[in-house]
Design a protein that fits this description.
The protein is of the alpha/beta class. It contains ten helices and 15 strands. The strands form four sheets. Strands 6-5-4-9-12-14-15 form a seven-stranded parallel β-sheet, with helices on both faces. Strands 1-3-2 form a three-stranded antiparallel β-sheet. The longest helix has 15 residues. It starts with a helix and ends with a strand. This is DeoR/GlpR transcriptional regulator.
Length: 251
């Protein structure tokens, strides 16, 4: 089998089965495990899959820049945002992450809401200018232009000054085995800090992020209390999260 044919086969198997286990696949195809692993490494460099220990998972399409991500799931994100906004109670202190779904969440907040929003996203902060009873606290740091958020040591340190009732987290990827992951090492650390200083973590997951993986783990799924997804998502994709005791809201 030619290299190109092997790679096409690997991508087809990944699409159909949702994962590749190198050892199992090498046995079923009669190929060496080293050959499979080499092909997976090369496909990962092309951004066509995400390498994990022992095999591969689908790569998240949500690793593009902010402008590209705004064009993904344009119907699902506002619905997810509305469902998330309904979770906020008057008087609460809330962390809102950066990202396109987080901006939609800020837009969905009622104009008469009385709450405190803490964010490292300038985009989210600007959306709340016309909310007279929302006190907005902006966390500063180095601007990560990919997601338009503040990051770095100063930002992570600032998070430690707060205790929030809820953290609405945006992610690149969500997978039962890989956990919650993103495409940048420092961004993962920032999200981890926000989650650690919130009583509950709510993951906002548009459909293209489910069942995929990105290079840097934010945290295992045990740290997630709630996931908000589009109601049209296949229940089979959600079953593993429900089995872990994670609440799932269909928006």
């Amino acid at each position: 089998m030619l290299t190109r044919q092997r790679k096409e086969l690997l991508l087809r198997i990944l699409k159909e089965e949702g994962q590749i286990v190198a050892k199992t696949l090498s046995e079923s195809l009669g190929l060496s495990e080293d050959t499979i692993r080499r092909d997976l490494r090369e496909l990962a460099k092309e951004g066509l899959l995400e390498r994990v220990h022992g095999g591969a998972l689908p790569a998240s399409p949500a690793q593009g820049n902010f402008a590209i991500r705004e064009k993904l799931s344009t119907d699902a994100k506002p619905a997810i945002a509305r469902a998330a906004a309904a979770m906020i109670r008057p008087g609460q202190v809330v962390f809102i992450d950066g990202g396109t779904t987080a901006v939609q969440l800020a837009r969905a907040l009622p104009r008469d809401l009385r709450a405190t929003v803490i964010t490292h996203s300038p985009s989210v902060a600007v959306e709340l200018v016309e909310h007279p009873d929302v006190d907005v606290i902006i966390i500063g740091g180095r601007l990560f232009k990919h997601s338009i958020v503040a990051m770095g040591a100063a930002a992570v340190e600032a998070v430690g000054q707060f205790r929030a009732d809820l953290f609405f987290m945006g992610v690149c990827s969500l997978h039962p085995e890989a956990g919650i992951t993103t495409g940048d090492f420092d961004e993962a650390a920032m999200k981890r800090a926000l989650s650690a200083h919130a009583q509950r973590t709510v993951v906002l997951a548009s459909p293209e992020k489910l069942g995929t993986a990105s290079p840097f783990q934010i945290a295992p799924l045990e740290t997630v209390d709630h996931i908000v997804v589009n109601r049209e998502v296949d229940e089979a994709l959600l079953a593993p999260y429900r089995a872990m005791g994670i609440e799932v809201t269909l928006a």
